[in-house]
């Protein structure tokens, strides 16, 4: 089965699809805060355990990790120094007493000793890698035998909404195509189980976690439909136009139709995938 992508060449790689703007920092924060109960349920690490969060970004999940596991010793890694600076600020503001160390590193080349962590946490990162299977296999080196990995990913193919609109679906597809051009895969949720198994993990358990938003759940409409999902599609509007993926008229109609799903009478569904697995003794 083919699960790995192709290494993006400089010619086709516009960079990390979401970018590192202030707007994206807010979007990641809204996403993590709105979905914390849904995505972090069941993730609790014992006091004293060493936990590695790879691709921590601006620390949006980090504060929920340490909030749910007081006493755990967290090491948070990202490839972006600017994101790490924001993550430090976020943890200082929201979890001042937490035991968190930050390191700038590529998750494929981590500066840590073999078997130095009890748990690894990966959220919304594999979707940006051209080699997610190799990355997962590589993380086993720093995870002790018997230690666990938790992986959370989205899958934009799981998004459906009312009122339905071919323009809105095409606008979402722009995000999927641009992410693929950057070497990622916005449909990776459906591959989490095979990726973990192929990387050599044992006891792989993957479950869907669905967000459903309508006017009776205004916090989800605001935090997820508007500020996480639609904001993500809006953020690639210019890049999608430059790439000629849709005409300006059609893309703007698609974005307007997506916004209608967050108004009275609209509904929005999206399914995340959360996987848990154990690093077997070699
Ligand atoms: C969508 S963000 C998710 C951030 C955070 N996990 C969250 O859920 O809010 C993806 C993050 O992965 C980081 N990243 C991408 N490739 C990486 C790599 N090879 N090594 C370390 N971090 C990486 C990016 O810099 C970015 O901060």
UniProtKB/TrEMBL annotation:
InterPro entries: Methyltransf_11, Methyltransf_Superfamily, SAM-dependent_MTases_sf
Any one GO biological process: methylation
Species for this entry: Streptomyces litchfieldiae
Pfam family of the protein (one): Methyltransf_11
Ranges for domain Methyltransferase type: 52-149
Protein name as it appears in the record: Methyltransferase domain-containing protein
Keywords assigned: Methyltransferase, Transferase
Keyword Glycosyltransferase: no
Molecular-function GO term, any one: methyltransferase activity
PANTHER family: METHYLTRANSFERASE, N6-ADENOSINE-METHYLTRANSFERASE TMT1A
């Amino acid at each position: 089965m083919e699960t790995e992508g192709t290494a993006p060449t400089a010619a086709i790689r516009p960079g990390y699809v979401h970018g590192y703007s202030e707007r994206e920092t807010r979007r990641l924060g809204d996403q993590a805060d709105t979905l914390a109960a849904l995505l972090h349920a069941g993730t609790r690490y014992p006091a004293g355990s060493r936990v590695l969060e790879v691709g921590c970004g601006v620390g949006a999940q980090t504060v929920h990790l340490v909030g749910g596991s007081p006493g755990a010793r967290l090491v948070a890694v990202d490839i972006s120094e600017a994101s790490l600076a924001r993550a430090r600020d976020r943890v200082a503001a929201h979890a001042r007493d937490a035991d968190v160390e930050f390191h700038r590193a590529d998750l494929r080349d981590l500066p840590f000793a073999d078997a130095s962590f009890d748990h690894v946490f990966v959220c919304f990162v594999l979707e940006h890698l051209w080699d997610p299977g190799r990355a997962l296999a590589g993380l086993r080196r720093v995870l002790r035998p018997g230690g666990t990995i938790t992986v959370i990913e989205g899958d934009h193919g799981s998004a459906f909404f009312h009122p339905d609109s071919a323009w809105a679906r095409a606008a979402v597809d722009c995000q999927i195509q641009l992410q693929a051009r950057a070497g990622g895969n916005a449909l990776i949720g459906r591959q989490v189980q095979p990726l973990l198994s192929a990387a050599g993990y044992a006891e792989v358990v993957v479950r869907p976690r669905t967000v459903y938003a309508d006017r009776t759940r205004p916090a989800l409409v605001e935090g997820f439909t508007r500020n996480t999902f639609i904001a993500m599609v809006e953020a690639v509007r210019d890049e999608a136009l430059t790439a000629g993926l849709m005409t300006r008229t059609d893309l703007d109609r698609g974005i307007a139709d997506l916004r209608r799903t967050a108004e009275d009478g609209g509904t929005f569904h999206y399914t995340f995938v959360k996987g848990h697995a154990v690093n077997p003794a070699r």
